[in-house]
Amino acid sequence: MPVPPLPAEAIELGAVASDWRDSVRIAGAALVRSGAATPAYSEEMIRMIEEHGPYVVIAPGLALAHARPGPAVLADGLAIVTLADPVSFGHPHNDPVRVVLALAVAVGGDHLGAVASLANVFNDSDAIDALASATTIEAVQHIMGVA
Fold first, then answer.
1. Mean pLDDT score of the chain, rounded to an integer?
2. pLDDT(1) > 60
3. Dihedral sign, CA of 104, 108, 110, 112?
4. Predicted confidence band at 118 (pLDDT cuts at 50, 70, 90)?
5. Active site residue 142
6. Which helix (H) or strand (E) holds 4?
7. I need a labelling partner for 143 at 20 to 30 A (CA). Which of 21, 63, 115, 117 fits?
8. Is 39 within the bounds of a domain?
9. Is 3:141 a contact under the CB 8 Å cutoff?
10. Residue 111 above 70 pLDDT?
11. Host domain of residue 63
12. Are strands 62-66 and 97-104 parallel, antiparallel or unpaired?
């Protein structure tokens, strides 16, 4: 599975988040704007992190929030939020987070392929810094390989 669609509506630059939950809600709202999820999906992503810990902080400065497919997922989608000020998820090595990705996958088995495609983007060690400092939606799409 390639990187899910990343329309302009799914990108928010320089967002202000009070904590990690707020950052996930902002990313979830971007999924809602893009038509990939309902508002309930944000709370599902938060619940997963509350239950399983900060496993979503997959690299220094980068979180990949997601939840299981279900009625809150309308279509495959990806949202990217850069934060004006980093937030802590409680990860011992990769906090604080500057970039939050939210992934919605409609079909259960497809999420591993989507995560693998995203991982390929971040094989470039400069990708997180480039995203965190991006000033345009087009720059984010280019970094993610969907421009």
1. 91
2. no
3. positive
4. confident
5. no
6. none
7. 21
8. yes
9. no
10. no
11. 8-143
12. parallel
Query: For 13-68, what is the HEC assignment?
Result: EEECCCCHHHHHHHHHHHHHHHCCECCHHHHHHHHHHHHHCCCCEEECCEEEEECC
Report DSSP state, residue 96: S
SS3 assignment, position 82: strand
In a domain, 59, yes or no: yes
CA atoms within 13 A on the CB side of 106: 12
Summarize the confidence of residues 9-33 as an average pLDDT.
Answer: 98
Residue labelled with tokens 């495609």: 117
Using alpha carbons, select from 47, 49, 116, 35 the residue that is nearest to residue 78: 35
- Tally the domains of the chain: 1
Active-site hit among 66, 91, 111, 142: 66
